[in-house]
Amino acid sequence: LNKTNLKHFLTTQDYTKKELEDILSLMGMLKEARKDNAIPQLFKGKSVAMIFEQPSTRTRVSFETAASLLGGHALFLSPKDIHLGAKESLEDTARVLARMVDVIMARVNLHETVATLAKYSSVPVINGLCDWLHPTQIMADLFTMMEHLPEGKKLSDLTVAFVGDATNVNSSLMFACTKFGMHYKHIGPEKFQAPQSWQDIANKNIKESGGKLTVTDDIEEVKGCDIIIADSFYWFGQEEEKEIRLKTFIPKYVITEELMEKAGKDAIFMHCLPANDQREVTREVMEGDRSVIFDEAENRLTAQMALLVYLTFRFNEEPTQEKI
Ligand code: CP
Asked: What pLDDT sits at residue 320?
């Protein structure tokens, strides 16, 4: 193995736009192959260790299914089952797992944890969500945006409005959308807006891509947006703030049919799920014609298949059309 090729997937910021486009193309090929029941066995004989410090439906099922569809195997490892952090350090866990598996995927409480795993692992480490980022979600989101592009538009023509809190999905979308030259709006109450450090990263992307960033508390900014995105108003570790958060966000930042009308007749709705209906979004919007939330969920599987293939091949050699 040529370790100089080792690349982790902790954030899309570690990837060029071209590399992200390559992953998106691979997603397209593998999604088509799945429809034809002809997925190439590119992960045959390989395995992915999946560490979960937090619960998950989509991330767990999509990685496990992706490994299996590609001819490989996935191991679910919760901190209750392995020595992680109790009897064994992160550093040793990373080195031991890397001697046995081909990819490590970790959903962790703190970014530092997945960064340490990556530092000590000799196989690719994928960030399956941390307190700061959710990059695998964003590959699914970009692909879903491409599948639902308005007539005659390309990704860089889109204006995306993320309504709500400065969540890990929001940060990752902000970074990826600005890298692709989109106009990204974070619309939320001042106290919960994207910190300057995130805006600095997005603005650096914008200098290269020609995109735009707007951070505002003005909900009227949804007007003319192509995509409206919502996320939970509170997450693990924020339970104590639950009441104050709900009071701050509801009703102004709840996605309703009325708000979708305000965005424009062709605007679509996205949500990484799970959603708390009647909190950040109404059930009517989730079930409505503009909602693409279940396409988005399905594309988690599309993304994980591509990531397993891309990172495994990248570790050894660049993927080629012939190999795919
Ligand atoms: N969107 C997402 O990451 O879902 P899970 O928490 O179910 O994995």
From this structure: 52
Q: What is the pTM of this model?
A: 0.95
Q: Which amino acid belongs to residue 2? A: N
Residues with a known catalytic role: 107, 134, 137, 231, 272, 300
Test site for ligand 1: of 63, 129, 168, 270, most ligand atoms within 8 A of the Cβ? 129
Dihedral (C-alpha) 238, 139, 299, 64: value to the nearest 10 degrees?
A: -70
> CA-to-CA distance for 107 and 128, rounded, in angstroms?
4
Identify whether the C-beta of residue 115 lies closer than 8 Å to the C-beta of residue 86.
no
As a whole number of angstroms, the distance between CA 140 and CA 272 comes to 9
Handedness of CA 137, 143, 146, 148 (dihedral sign): negative
> Which of the 8 DSSP states describes residue 71?
T
Q: How many angstroms from the chain centroid is the CA of residue 274?
A: 13
251 prior amide bond cis, ω within 30:
yes
Neighbours of 265 (CB within 10 A): 7
| Plot region of 30 (φ>0 → left; ψ -120 to 50 → alpha; else → beta) | alpha
What DSSP state is assigned to residue 191?
G
C-alpha angle 203/16/274, rounded to 5°? 75
In the prediction, which pLDDT does 2 show?
40
Question: Angle, nearest 10°, between helix axes 17-35 and 168-179?
Answer: 110
* CA-closest residue to ligand 1 atom 4: 58
Residue 315 has what pLDDT?
Answer: 62
> Which residues, listed in sequence order, are joined to residue 77 by a DSSP beta bridge?
51
User: What is the residue-wise DSSP string for 282-321?
Assistant: -HHHHHSTTB-HHHHHHHHHHHHHHHHHHHHHHHHS---T
